[in-house]
Design goal:
- The protein has about 180 residues and is mainly β.
- It contains one helix and nine strands.
- The strands form two sheets. Strands 1, 2, 3, 5 and 7 form a five-stranded mixed sheet that branches.
- The N and C termini lie far apart (about 40 Å).
């Protein structure tokens, strides 16, 4: 981490994106993970910090882009992660460095923005706290980051084929394990 004059820091992350086997609902599936984990790591920063993510694509046959949902890319449109619009996909075995400012406090998330990669597990949280020395606008006792997502037992490739087929083939709703009237989580 490198500290700037106003207390802002450069926050560096090194990611390797690849396929992993995971069992989010006790049924093993292949999904896309970051550094061998699912979901991806939570990024913590403060307003004014520069976020630097060096991403290596270890998927053997697919490109990757990451969209930082809710982050305004003022002056850094190439970091927005919209495939083939603001950024070419990162090719297999290549590395790309995202660099952008965290300009607004809030809880955000990032996700794969190429094909169906978000549904295959390529996502995580991005939390931007108020700048150092700035008072929080609300009082709260604690913080819990809860990241929810649909989970399908069909691969992202099966989903993509079904969605683009004529006639359209819907794979169904996300799978639910606890079907009791009063679910206990």
């Amino acid at each position: 981490m490198v500290r700037g004059g106003n207390g802002a820091k450069a926050r560096h992350f090194r990611w390797e994106v690849g396929y992993v086997f995971w069992s989010p609902d006790c049924e093993e599936n292949m999904l896309i993970g970051i550094n061998g984990r699912y979901p991806g790591p939570t990024i913590h920063a403060k307003v004014g910090d520069t976020i630097v993510v060096e991403l290596k694509n270890s998927l053997p046959t697919e490109g990757i882009v990451i969209h930082w949902h809710g982050i305004r890319q003022f002056g850094t449109p190439w970091a927005d992660g919209t495939a083939s619009i603001s950024q070419c996909p990162i090719k297999p075995d290549e590395t790309f460095t995202y660099r952008f400012k965290a300009d607004k406090a809030g809880t955000y998330f990032y996700h794969g923005h190429y094909g169906m990669q978000r549904s295959a597990g390529l996502y995580g949280s991005l939390i931007v706290d108020v700048a150092q020395g700035v008072k929080e606008p609300f009082h709260y006792d604690g913080e819990l980051n809860l990241l929810l997502s649909d989970w399908y037992h069909q691969s992202m490739h099966s989903q993509m084929l079904g969605l683009s087929s004529i006639p359209f083939r819907w794979i169904g709703e996300p799978q639910v394990r606890n079907l009791k009237p009063d679910p206990v989580f």
